[in-house]
Amino acid sequence: VSYSHRLYIFGGTIGHSCHVLIHDFTHWAGHPNILVNKAFAIFCNVGMGLPSALGFGIYHSDHHNYLGEDGKDPDLPTMFEVRNVKSTFAKCLFFLFLSLIYAFRPFIFMHKKMTVDEIVNFIVIICTDLIIYKFWGIGALAFILIKGLISIGA
Q1: Which terminus, N or C, of the chain has the lesser number of Cβ atoms within 10 Å?
Q2: CA distance linking residue 82 with residue 121, whole number of Å
Q3: 46-71, pLDDT tens digit by residue?
Q4: Rounded to an integer, what distance in angstroms lies between the CA atom of residue 135 and that of residue 58?
Q5: What kind and span of H or E run contains 33?
Q6: What is the pLDDT of residues 25-54, one digit of tens each?
Q7: Which of 51, 32, 93 shows the shortest CA–CA distance to 41?
Q8: SS (H, E, C) 103-144
Q9: Are 50 and 148 in contact (CB under 8 A)?
Q10: How far is CA 67 from CA 6, 60, 76, 137, in A?
C-alpha cells in the first residue's frame, strides 16, 4: 500500500475521529468539568498539527446559536463561495481545501478577539509540532499536517 493510501486511510480515519472528539469536547459533552473538556479537546488537537480545537468551539457555538442566519452562522457559505464555486472543478477544489476554508472562513468574515484558551491551544500545538519535528523529522510533521487537512471533508 502506497504512502498516499496509508495517509488517506489511516491518517484520515484517525484525524476525523479527532475532529469528532474535538466537536464533542467543545460541546462540553465529554466530562462534567469544562476545564477537563478543554484539555481533552487540546489533546485531540495535537494530532492535527494546526491549533484549532478551542477556536472551533467558539465558532461552532455561534453556528448553533445562529443556525441558518446569514452573516451570523459561520458555517454558511460566503457570497463569494456561492458566486464562484459552480463548476465541477471549482467544487472539487473547494472540497479538497474544505478544512482550510472551514478553518479560516470565520476568522476572515466573523473575527472575534482571541481568548486565553485559544492562546494556550496555540502554544501547546506549536510546541508539540516542534517536538515531533525534532524527534521524528519533517516527514512525521508533514504526515500530521496533511492528515489534519484531509480528515474533515475528504
Answers
A1: N
A2: 32
A3: 988 889 899 889 888 989 999 999 88
A4: 33
A5: none
A6: 999 999 999 999 999 999 999 988 889 899
A7: 51
A8: HHHHHHHCCCCCCHHHHHHHHHHHHHHHHHHHHHHHHHHHHH
A9: yes
A10: 36, 10, 9, 42
